[in-house]
Amino acid sequence: QVELVESGGGLAQAGDSLRLSCVVSGRTASDYDMAWFRQAPGDQREFVAALTWMTYYADSVKGRFTISRDDAKNIVYLQMTSLKPEATAVFFCHTILTKWTSSYWGQGTQVTVST
After folding, report:
1. Percent of the chain clearing pLDDT 70 (strictly above)
2. Which of 13, 34, 9, 44 is nearest to 115 (CA)?
3. Torsion-angle region of residue 74: left (phi > 0), alpha (psi -120 to 50) or beta?
4. Long-range CB contacts (< 8 A, 24+ apart) of 63-68?
5. Shortest CA distance to 93 belongs to which of 39, 54, 35, 51?
6. Quick check: 76 and 34 in contact, CB under 8 A?
7. In angstroms, how far is the first alpha carbon of the chain from the final one?
8. How far apart are CA 54 and CA 114, in angstroms?
9. Tens digit of each residue's pLDDT (9 = 90 or more) over 31-82
């Protein structure tokens, strides 16, 4: 069983930076393509960034957010810069479903950005 535990969320002001972490346990993180999603109150969960053999970003975060991984530590990161109030959401770490790997979700970490 794979477990994903996110951390690093909190309260930030517009323009600030935060780095989210996702610790992968149960299997080696490098076995998975990874992604970050977010869900704002009343909204559906939406894609933020993905890391396969390439990186992919939602248009709304392109140029400001960076997804990366440290396979030695089994951690996936989401570096967020120039935060905007509309980034306020619960951010979730996710292992991407593929032919060889299952889909898992973390419990989420709250990010709140004030003006």
Report:
1. 100
2. 13
3. left
4. 67/34, 67/35, 67/36
5. 35
6. yes
7. 40
8. 32
9. 899 999 999 999 999 999 999 999 999 999 999 999 999 999 999 999 999 9
Using DSSP bridges, classify how beta strands 75-80 and 18-25 pair: parallel, antiparallel or unpaired.
antiparallel
The phi and psi torsions of 31 (rounded to 5 degrees) equal: -70, -15
Dig out the tokens for 33 from the structure: 């393509």
Type of residue found at 48: V
CA R_g for the chain: 13
Q: Tally helices (H) and strands (E) across the chain.
A: 0, 11
Task: Please give the structure tokens belonging to residue 107.
Answer: 């419990």
Helix (H) or strand (E) holding 40: none
Q: Report whether 23 contacts 74 (CB < 8 A).
A: yes
